[in-house]
Amino acid sequence: MTVPLLQLTAVAKSFGAVRALKGVSFDLRAGEVHALLGENGAGKSTLIKVITGAHSPDAGTLELAGQRVVQLSPARAHRLGIACIYQQPALFPDLTVAENIALRLEPVTPLRRVAWPARRRQAGELLHRLGATISPETEVRSLSMPEQQLVEIACALGAGARIVIMDEPTASLTQQEVARLFGIVRALRQDGVGIIYISHRLEEIFALADRVTVLRDGESVGTRCVRRENAAGPKRDVAQSTEAMADAPLLTEAQLIQLMVGREVSTLAPPVERELGDVVLALERVGCAASGVQAVTLAVRAGEIVGLAGLIGAGRTELARILFGLTPADSGQIVLQGQRVTLASPQAAVARGIAYVPEDRRRHGLILEMPIAQNIALASHRWLFPGTWLRFGAERTLALNFMRDLGVKAAGPEALGSSLSGGNQQKVALARWLATRPKLLILDEPTQGVDVGAKGELHRIIRRLAQEGMAVLLISSDLPEILSLSHRLAVMRGGTITALLPNGCQASEVMAAALGQTGERATE
Amino acid sequence: MVNRYFRELSVAAALIVVLTGLAWFAPSFFEPQPLLSRLTAAAPRLVVACGIAIVIVCRQIDISVGSLFAVCSVGAGWLAAAHVPGPLVLLATLALGAAGGALNGGLVAVLGLPAIVVTLAMMVTLREALRLVQQGVFINLPDGVQWFGLPMSLGQLTVCGIALGILLVLNWALGSLAVGRFVYAVGSDAEAARLAGIRPRAVTFGVFVLTGTLTGLAAVMNLVQSPQVDPSTGRLLELEAIAAAVVGGVAVAGGRGRLGGVLAGFLLLTCITPALTYLGVKPYWDKAIQGAIILLAVVADGIRRRRELP
Fold first, then answer.
1. Chain B window 173-202: which residues touch A at a Cβ cutoff of 8 Å?
2. Residue B271: is its pLDDT beyond 70?
3. Does residue A104 sit in the same domain as residue A142?
4. Number of separate domains in chain A
5. What band does A522 get if pLDDT is binned at 50, 70 and 90?
6. Structure confidence at residue B301 (pLDDT)
7. Average per-residue pLDDT for chain A
């Protein structure tokens, strides 16, 4: 067997308590398209960042064409022929195409003279090779997204990249543009370039990939051949492989989904069936053009936890932001406790009894420079301090009550938010919103980056809140979590709800709906 | 606790060192009348520094206060020269200052423009407009304006009293009013504050209006100290105010700072000049040493911030 272009062996990487990669092995051969698949948070981005040198692994080895590489940096990875094309092209919008390409290809020596005519000619040749009709003199700002992507690919080609990573390259492309991109990818493959292809669109993986590796919870759960003839090795011609696309794949979509979600049963018992209360929130074809949410119809009852599942970018956080008045809806109606409302600002949402615990709590969930007590009181000033000024006694009592109630481990209510662990920060962020006595609680990835113990505590708290009659809308990418906590599950894709699943549905059903396997393609 | 007030305490310690040095080498510094005169002359600067400190806590900046101060001084001077009653002059000047602040705040908060550029433009525009209108002519003030018509020492005490009163009221408001807390929240992280139901734009706008108003007040406090209004007054006031705030432990990156520290920073910078004179240091060194103190304060803040990063 030939030496692979890239060989990762037992690569591990942790961020604090979170183990993003737990010993992943992965190999890429010359002239293959190797798809990388996994749920949100499965470790795909971390793995990519290890390959591009952005993260250095805690353990494991990385070999390029049989040579072990240590201390890989992004600059070194670039020199070694590794290129990454991101979903959002990372070009300089005010420079021309030629300047952008030259910047990538010039060695970084500040005082060297740039041979502009040669660079321009080279840029033109590269673009021509890709079949693009972009003038090298165009400012990148004026290019469309797919054109910018082509420029990125031209940079990779110009740098003589042997390994090209494509991170959801088709996310914002039309069908035609996808077809053209596929043509380019196949041409690259024929030239012996190894391509790591990340996509959530299974049909693309089946159309393009030779092999697929599925990541789950930071582990590789398996590498499978997608197309039979590819197992033979890099020496084939394009015509043959294109024809071969009609062949039945070795792996079915169902098998792939099963690999992604795994078979393990969730650790928590499913929610108890109970009598639910009145409808607290009813959405009727709610949309917001600015954030790409369209025609969302959903109801949440008192005492009910409705899970909102979907992939990153499916529009879940965007929907939450509509409900919290951050990006107000411009179509449809929102009915809150029987009353039609317009939620034009967070203040309006809070006044209506809506609470939103945002994702990324280290940045937005709480104010790190403020003590716990102030953080908890921050959204409740209206009722907590009915007069004009603050009452520190009341604030402290409120904080102490919530800290005891939610089990916040801290030196005291005066401890700064920055001194807390992730789980405790999340509890404080939650306490802030519980203090507003909301009718509807929206939780956005409440246990992301939280250790296992605190996660279990948060689950119990969320359940108890629902039992006490709160309506909860739970956004989570953690499938076992959302499956076990939710009474009902709404799956979003392409800015709208594509499936409503009952309590007790299977992880594979959720994943299939999130991947759009049953629904229509969400391409614009 | 010591840790939490570290910045303020270290400034206070530096102040105590300077004062002790003065008491040792130049006890005449503490003679009541010269000391009162010195403090009175500096008192308007303290009022502006309080406003600037709050602006910086809100993670903004206002470098137009010096020019606004001059505009307010000239405006107040015209009114006083026209024998408009004192309280009306005060109110009109406060309104003028507030209007200037509102213009800054509107551009920064509503249009989302960077405060440094907006207030730089305002600084130049106001200063040049004033020069064009006033042509450098001093305004003579009628009798009864100086020291509010009070005896001099009583007038001086009044000016100092106003400055101290403003400091105490603002300090109380920052600590005990919800809006004070909103300023810290917005300065720490505007997006987090917005997600907590606070309106960052309204807070930012208010902070600029407050600073403008305080600048108007400072102009009046300065006006009563001399028989004439110099239309080029207030030069470098913005720098002195920012210096007092920064030396007083207000974090340049926003979200942190206390007016107690600003008072200490203000006193330290005010005492340094006479201290140097008494110690026989050549006056050329004065600005350089002030600059060094400011640099030291910013560097200390930067080091602390770096160390606190995870």
1. 175-178, 181, 184-185, 188-189, 191-199
2. yes
3. yes
4. 4
5. very low
6. 79
7. 84
Structural domain of A189:
1-81+162-263
Q: Please give the structure tokens belonging to residue B238.
A: 């913005």
Q: Which two tokens stand for residue B265?
A: 């920073």
The average pLDDT across A354-376 equals 87
Are A21 and A166 members of one domain?
yes
**B309 at the A interface (CB within 8 A)?**
no
Domain boundaries, given as residue ranges, for chain B: 34-234
- Tokens in use for A404? 């005891």
Chains A, B: CB pairs < 8 Å = 63
Residue at token pair 């959204």:
A379
Tell whether A455 is covered by a domain: no
Q: Which residue's structure tokens are 């409302």?
A: A341
Q: Which residue of B has its CA nearest to A15?
A: B310
Judged against a pLDDT cut of 60, whether residue A248 lies above it is answered with no
Do A257 and A294 reside in the same domain of the chain?
no
pLDDT band at A327 (very low <50, low <70, confident <90, very high): very high
Residues A306 and A404 placed together within one structural domain of the fold: no
pLDDT of residue A309: 92
Q: Could you say which of A364, A369, A385 has the minimum Cβ distance to residue B195?
A: A364
B188 vs A346, A369, A432: nearest CB: A369
User: Are the Cβ atoms of A326 and B255 closer than 8 angstroms?
Assistant: no
**Predicted pLDDT of residue B308:** 64
- ipTM of predicted assembly, 2 dp: 0.83
- Cβ-nearest to A346 among B177, B185, B194: B194
Q: What is the pLDDT of residues A258-284, one digit of tens each?
A: 787 775 544 455 556 667 889 999 999
Is residue A465 included in any domain, yes or no? no
For residue A395, list chain B residues with Cβ-Cβ distance below 8 A: none
Residues A282 and A257 placed together within one structural domain of the fold: no
User: What is the pLDDT at residue A361?
Assistant: 67
**Model confidence, pTM:** 0.78
The verdict on a CB contact (< 8 Å) between A326 and B193 is no
- Let me know the angle formed at the C-alpha of A92 by A86 and A94, rounded to the nearest 5 degrees: 145
Looking at the fold, whether A145 and A167 belong to one and the same domain comes out as no
Give B199→chain A minimum CA distance, Å: 8
- How many whole angstroms separate alpha carbon B57 and alpha carbon B79? 34
Closest chain B residue to the Cα of A326, Cα to Cα: B195
Q: So what's the pLDDT on residue A235?
A: 43
Lookup: tokens for A393: 């006694």
The Cα–Cα gap between A439 and A308 comes to 18
- Do B189 and A367 make contact, defined as CB atoms within 8 angstroms? yes
**Chain-chain contact of B181 with A374 (C-beta, under 8 angstroms):** yes
Cβ of B255 within 8 Å of Cβ of A390? The answer is: no
pLDDT tens, residue by residue, A473-501? 999 988 888 888 999 999 999 899 999 99
Q: Return d(Cα A184, Cα B61) in angstroms, integer.
A: 51
Question: Within an 8 Å CB–CB cutoff, is residue B308 touching chain A?
Answer: yes
On whether the CB atoms of residues B197 and B54 are closer than 8 A, the answer is no
Q: Which two tokens stand for residue A271?
A: 């929610």
Contact A326 B195 (CB under 8 A): yes
List of chain B residues whose C-beta atoms are within 8 Å of the C-beta of residue A356: 195
User: Of the spans A373-377, B46-50, B253-257, B266-270, which averages the highest pLDDT?
Assistant: B46-50
Flag if A356 and B195 touch (Cβ within 8 Å).
Answer: yes
Whether A335 contacts A341, CB under 8 Å:
yes
- Which of A123-132 are b and which e, b meaning 16 or more Cβ less than 10 Å from the residue's Cβ? bbebbeebeb
Token reading at A221: 């759960």
Judged by CB atoms closer than 8 Å, whether chains meet at B256 and A369 is answered as: yes
Interface test with A, best of B195, B301, B307 (most A CBs within 10 A): B195
Mark yes or no for CB contact B308/A418 under 8 Å: yes
- State the alpha helices, DSSP H only, in chain B: 6-25, 32-57, 65-81, 86-105, 115-134, 152-176, 178-188, 190-195, 200-223, 237-247, 259-278, 285-308
Could B195 and A390 be called an inter-chain contact, meaning their C-beta atoms sit closer than 8 Å? no
Residue A1: predicted pLDDT: 54
User: Residues A58-106: pLDDT tens digits?
Assistant: 999 999 988 898 888 888 888 888 999 887 778 888 889 988 888 887 7
Structure tokens at A264: 């393990």
